[in-house]
Amino acid sequence: MSNKRNISARESELGLKREPILGSLTKEQRREMEELSREYMEFIGRAKTERMSTEMIVAILERSGFRPMDRVKRWRAGTKVYMVNRGKNVAACVLGKDDLTEGANLVAAHADAPRLDLKQNPLYEDADTKLALLKTHYYGGIKKYQWVNIPLALHGKVILANGKEVEIHIGESDKDPVFTICDLLPHLYRKKQADRKLSEGISGEELHVLLASMPYDDRKAKKKVKLWVLDHLNKEYGMVEEDFVSAEIEVVPAGPAREVGFDRSMIGAYGQDDRICAFTCIKAITEIGIPKRTAIALVIDKEEIGSDGPTSIKSRFLEEVFSFLLELKEPDYPDRKLRRALSATYAISSDVNGAVNPMYKDVHELQNAARLGLGICLTKYTGSGGKYSSNDASAEFMAVIRRTLNGAGIPWQTGELGKVDEGGGGTIAKFLAEHNMDVVDAGPALLSMHSPMEISSKADIWSTYGAYKAFYEMKG
Ligand code: MN
Ligand code: MN
Questions:
Q1: Measured in angstroms, how far is the CA atom of residue 411 from the centroid of ligand 1?
Q2: Domain end call among 220, 253, 286
Q3: What is the 98 CA–ligand 1 centroid distance (Å)?
Q4: Structural domain of residue 66, as residue ranges?
Q5: Is 0.85 surpassed by the pTM of this model?
């Protein structure tokens, strides 16, 4: 990146730092970018659920010298600790030089992604076709037609009647079978499908996963293919049909992350919203020195369905983390110290924005829309219909972030989620703000967001990682 600061450059700085970062990276920065991207592809290709992400994040933290919080007994600046909530949330902290009541620097991302969940009673055999299928209920905002005719994997956990926990992971290895949802052939779709609106092209109750066609060898059985599946599940996992009730099994796109383009400058993978931020905020916190303010990376769940439930940002997990940290200095700290620490905290709601798609530019107002490859995107406000339901970051806090990124030489851009009155969406920013902390949304922009193959830019991953690192290490 050029450091030239002549007048014309300054004038064009905001709207028009519109050149791809890739064009101005040094050799060393390019090397860093490629190394980071390799690590990220390994992560995103394997972290297919919030539980799997949590496990991989804990492994990264353990390798980097972070210890479970309950093993640390007193406050010492530089100490690295982490806490896991219900296998689905992680908080990683590096204790700062300042007292926690002066506030922490928090980067919070989510590790849940749109997908298909199995219904509670999912398995059936279709009497006419003798095929066994699984019924699903989609999770989060998907365009349902995107989920048919692609290879799918199953990942999850089953608690058997005797309390034993069994994990299911099938569809990722070359040797595994995959699953799929069958769409109607074009030869016969005219009356049934052709005139449907795109949003109803495939309906929620048509998302049934093809499972088996093999009949079980038992002349008396009525549903032989379903029986084959039940027998298989029993042999393989010790499961009976009722065990689906105490299971969480997710249907997700199968296969690894791929480089995209002749120039390999982009990454295509499922679940990048928002595991791209989960990865970069965790990776960045493993590489900081002793920070002035305590640094916290938080990875949470249930963002895609409105942040409800005990593993969401609306639960009190973040307060529990803060309370644990305060106890390291003062076991009987007064409650006002917790309030003060939370309200003095600076937070980045670490989430993705939608990059301009060249085929659908008119949903954006181009002067304020995010582009792929221009660096981390600062999103001051989200919401819809007049910023409704949005955390709108203050001028003062935007100034802090801007100064930090410019000071560290991190290329960044601004973005908003679509034209005014076009649509919109929200993030966890407004829930963080309920603690009275300053919050801004910042993360990379993606193409094809919420699809089975979301596209990110390697340069944006590098910029996002650098921005979070600079934020954790902020001096002022
Ligand atoms: Mn998101
Ligand atoms: Mn999302």
A1: 21
A2: 253
A3: 31
A4: 2-113+270-472
A5: yes
Q: How many structural domains does the chain have? A: 2
What distance in angstroms lies between residue 443's CA and the mean position of ligand 1's atoms?
9
Please give the Cα distance from 125 to 415 (Å, whole number). Answer: 48
The string of pLDDT tens digits covering residues 315-359 is: 999 999 999 999 999 999 999 999 999 999 999 999 999 999 999
Q: Are residues 343 and 462 in the same domain?
A: yes
Is 357:395 a contact under the CB 8 Å cutoff? no
> How many angstroms is it from 337 CA to the middle of ligand 1?
31
From the CA of 278, how far away is ligand 1's center (Å)? 10
User: Residue 6 above 70 pLDDT?
Assistant: no
Residue 258 lies in a domain: no
Calpha distance 378→445 (Å, rounded): 10
CA of 343 to the centre of ligand 1 (A): 24
Longest dimension (CA), the chain: 86
Burial bucket for residue 332 (CB in 10 Å: 0-12, 13-18, 19+): exposed
CATH at residue 240:
2.30.250.10
What whole-number distance in Å separates Cα of residue 125 and Cα of residue 134?
Answer: 9
**Does residue 430 share a domain with residue 300?**
yes
For ligand 2, the distance from its centroid to the CA atom of residue 269, given in whole angstroms, is: 14
Q: Are residues 416 and 320 in the same domain?
A: yes
- C-alpha 37 to ligand 2 mean position (Å): 21
How far does the centroid of ligand 1 lie from the alpha carbon of residue 99, in Å?
31
Q: How far is the CA of 206 from the centre of ligand 1 (A)?
A: 26
Same domain assignment for residues 37 and 127: no
